[in-house]
């Protein structure tokens, strides 16, 4: 059983950590890499749009995947 609240909080603290908690290591590393690239894009201003979107998407995805894992 995965705690969906914990998965969301872990992704809140560090993007991709909730996916790793859910057992999706590749997806979590992908989120971490994408978040790092998005952070670097802040120097060209586009990162101010992509970074919050990616951060929120990571939290929602971690929560939904944990819920789905618990239903199985």
UniProtKB/TrEMBL annotation:
Output the superkingdom of the source species.
Bacteria
UniProt keyword annotation of Transmembrane helix present: yes
Q: Which residues cross the membrane?
A: 32-58
What keywords tag this UniProt record? Membrane, Transmembrane, Transmembrane helix
User: What name does this protein carry?
Assistant: NINE protein
- Please report the organism this UniProt entry assigns to the protein: Aquibacillus halophilus
Its taxonomic path starts at: Bacteria, Bacillati, Bacillota, Bacilli, Bacillales
